[in-house]
Hints:
The complex is a heterodimer.
Chain A: E1 3-8, H1 9-19, E2 24-27, H2 34-43, E3 50-53, H3 57-69, E4 74-78, H4 80-96, E5 100-108, E6 114-118, H5 123-128, E7 137-139, H6 144-161, E8 164-170, H7 171-175, E9 177-182, E10 221-223, H8 238-253, H9 256-259, E11 262-265, E12 271-275, H10 279-289, E13 296-300, E14 302-304, E15 319-324, H11 329-335, E16 342-346, H12 355-364
Chain B: H1 22-35, E1 43-47, E2 62-65, H2 71-81, E3 86-92, H3 93-99, H4 101-110, E4 115-120, H5 155-162, E5 166-171, H6 175-187, E6 192-197, H7 213-222, E7 224-226, H8 227-235, E8 245-252
Parallel strand pairs in B: 1-2, 1-3, 3-4, 4-6, 5-6, 7-8
Antiparallel strand pairs in B: 5-8
Helix pairs in contact in B: 1-6, 3-4, 4-5
Amino acid sequence: MTRTEFWQGNIASAEGALAAGCRFFGGYPITPSTEIAEHMAAKLPKRGGVFIQMEDELASIASVIGASWTGARAMTATSGPGFSLMMENIGYAAMTETPCVIVNVQRGGPSTGQPTMAAQGDMMQCRFGSHGDYAIIALCPASVQEMYDLTAKTFNLADQYRVPVFLMADEVIGHMRERIIVPDAVEHTGRPAFLPGTPPFKPGAGLIPGFPEFGKGYGTHVTGLTHDERGYPCATNPGLHAALVKRLVDKIESATQKLADFDVVNPDAEQIFIAYGAPVRTVQQVIHDHPDRKIGFLRVRTVWPFPAHALALFRCARRFIVPELNLGQIAREIERHAKVPITSVPKLGGELHTPAELFAVWEAGA
Amino acid sequence: MSFEDWFRQDRLPHIYCAGCGNGTIINCTLAAVDSMGWKKEDTVFVSGIGCSSRAPGYIVTDSLHTTHGRALAFATGVKMANPKLHVVVFTGDGDLAAIGGNHFIHACRRNIDLTVVCMNNQIYGMTGGQGSPTTPRGCISTTTPYGSTEPAFDLSELAIAAGANYVARWTSYHVKELERAVKTGLETPGFSFIEVLVQCPTNFGRRNKFRQVADQIEYIKAHSLLKAKRDRLLEQGERIPEDMYVVGELMRRSRPAMGLAPTEVKP
C-alpha cells in the first residue's frame, strides 16, 4: 500500500535513500542540507545501517567510498563549501569506479555566500570540479516527490555505472514541504557481477567492470593511480592512461540516451523553456497562467550527461530560453548543442524567477 | 603460513630505494598479521599517499590506496560498514601528521578499531625530500635548506592525548620489538598506533651527514631511549635531551571503542 505524507524535501531525500537500501551515511553538518544527515542519524541505526558524523567533508566522502567497497550502498549530503572540499575524493571515486551518492542541496556561492538561499551555482562543479577528465551522472529534482524518487534512483545508477552520482537539489526544493506519495518499494538493481579469477578492472558490458566487493577473498588492489586491468599502478604508460580515462568518460557518455530523463511540453512550439530544479516550478506556472499560448518546455531531470538529443524533438524551435539560478551554466552546455539561438535568463540572490519575469522574456520573442 | 605468503609476488620488485627501511616495517607488520591467524579475505590494508602508502599494493589482500592524508577516513568507512574486517593502515609522517592531521586526531578520539603503522622517516621521500612535520629542528631538506626552524611533532604523544587505546614507538632497528608491538596493536580493541622511526638514505640521510645507510640506523638506535629508562631518569630529576626518541609501549588502555566486530562488543 502506498501512503501519502507531507514531507520536507530533505526528509524525502533521506527516506528515498533508506527505501533504496542505503546502509551507510558519512556526513558533516552544513546548511541547507543538514536535515538529511539528521534524519539518517535517527533512522539508519534502527535499520542495521551506519551513520557517522565525520570531522569534515573530505572525510565524509572518503568514508563513503571506503564503505562502498564493502558492498554497502553509501551516501553523503552537503552544500557548496562542503561540496568544494569533496572534490579530490570525488575524482578518486571516478578513477576507482566506486559507486557512491552525493546529495548537494545548493546554496548561494562563491565561498560561504548565502547559506539559507537557493542557487544552482554548482552545476559545472559537479561535472568538472575534480582535476583530470572523467564523467559523472547528475539528477535535478523539482519537487519533494522527486527528492524521494530521484534519490532512490541515484543508487541504482551509481551501482550500475560504478560512478559517483549527484542529486543536485537546491535550497528551495530541499526545504519546502509538499504532499508526497511514498511507494511500497523502489526498484533495486545491483552492481555488475564480478567473475572471480578475472582481472578486477577489466571492462565488461557497457565498458563497466564487475564489482569485486571487499571481504570476499578476491584480493583486489584499488588505487587512484592510473592502473591496468589488474588494478596495478602503471602511471607512466601513455596509451594505458589514455585508454583508461577515455573509458571512464565513454561508459557514461555512450549511455546518454539511456540515462536521459526529461519531459516535453508543446513540441511544436517555437519558443521553448529549458529548466531543471526549482526554476521548473516557475516555468510550469507560466504555462498554467497562459493556456492560450504555445509555450514549449523541455524539463530536464538528468542534467549530466546532458540529453542533447532532446533539443531536436522541438522541430519548430526558433529559440531556447534557459532560466537558471546561476549566471548561465547549463545554458552554455545547451548552446554548444542547439541549432537555434539561446536566451540565458540568469537569476542570482537566492530567490526564484517570478512567472511574470519569465513570461516577459517569452513574450518579447513571440 | 609465513609473512611471505601475504606478498603479491607478481608486483615485485618494489619501488623502494636501496637502503630504505620501509621493507623492514612491512615485513614486521605482515609477520604480526600472519601470527594472528587471520584469513586473507577478512583483512584489508588501507593507505594514503607517499612511500609508506605504496605498501598495500604489494600485499595480496583487498587493499585501498587512497588520496593524500585521507587513509584513516577511508578506513573508517570500511571498518564501520563491515566491522568483521580487520583493517590495517600504512601511513607516513607527511600523510598522517600534515595533510591528514585532522583525521588522525579524530580517529584516535573515536578510538575506532584500526591498527595504524606510521613509517616516520622525517621527510617527504616520494616527492624528493621536503621538510615534514616531524623533520627535527635544524635538519636539512629541500624546503629547509638552512635547517628546519620548526619544532617537530611527537606523533605518539599526539595519539595518546587524542585517545588511542594502544600507542607504541619503535625504530627500523628494533625489529623484534616492532613485530611484538604491531601484534599487540592488532590484538587490542580500539585505535592502535605504532610509530616507527625509519631511515631514508636517499632523501634524509644524504642531506644530513649520514654517509652510509648504517650510519642513520646507528644514529636512530643510539638516540632511542626506552620508556622505562626515561621514566627512571625523570624520577631521578634528570633532563631528557631533546634529540632522544622515547621507544616502547607508551600507552595501553581500554577506552570505549568504535567499529568492533560483533563478537568483540562488550556489554
